Amino acid sequence: CAGFNQVATGTGTIQFVGLLTSSGAVTLDATVVDLDGGITTSAGGASGLITLSASAADGVNIAVGTTITTTAALNSGTASGGLTINNGGTGVVAILGNVVTTGAANNGGAGSAGGAVSITTANGIVGVDAITTTGGASSSGSHNGGAAGDVTINTGADVITLNDNITAVGGTDSGSNTGGVGGAVTFSDLVTLGAGIAIDSSGGVSTSGTDGDGGAIEFSSTLAGGSNTLALTAKGDTDGAVTFTGAVSGMGAVTLNDAAAVTVSSTFGCAGFNQVATGTGTIQFVGLLTSSGA
Q1: CA angle, 42 as apex, 62 and 198 as ends, to 5°?
Q2: pTM of structure
Q3: How large is the average pLDDT for residues 64-79?
């Protein structure tokens, strides 16, 4: 279709068993939003925005094997659409498939930005699989890469479970310009790891100019690892900062591939902490670092 807009909030479940493909924005607003086939938008910008709103305990469900995709046309100079998920109640947001937003590539100008991903509940649990937002690449001439979109998850005060990688990487430039800026990745509430996780907010790599700046990675509350590994990369011409605000416990090996300032404001328990590249800022542990490995 050329857009799908649910004007009034539905009083039941809206379910798409197959793929919804749209050249316009998609707004679904119901008690429960159930997606078994995914959504793809191609217009970019506000015309490619996907908004999913729910209010029930079952909330928003995106099935295994399903992908939410936003793109924009080659050489359009248009950012890809973003994804906004809101659950106004205390219900669950369960993303068992993938989310991909990709800025428009350009072979005669600058790459475009990838769409932002925002997930919000009112004290409802959120579980996510892979989220990837990428700035568009510039492939000819001398132009900048596109910025990645930011990734923000806010439950109010409930658990966020990460089951796959989070990527917010800027696009590559052309000539001697600048790669796109990496997106900021923010978890506003307590996080648990359901698997080994890599989070990458690096700036776009430049061919012969300047890499884009890395985006910040922030855990604003506690982090429980469940013995899983965590790898963080915020590389760029100016690296992104990494912040752990609450207590970190039960981690497997933690690898810090590249970052600027690293701030750990509470205790940190892990099976090893390895800072691979020399940091470009201060690394500060306010609480005790306890490790069963190097």
Answers
A1: 50
A2: 0.96
A3: 96
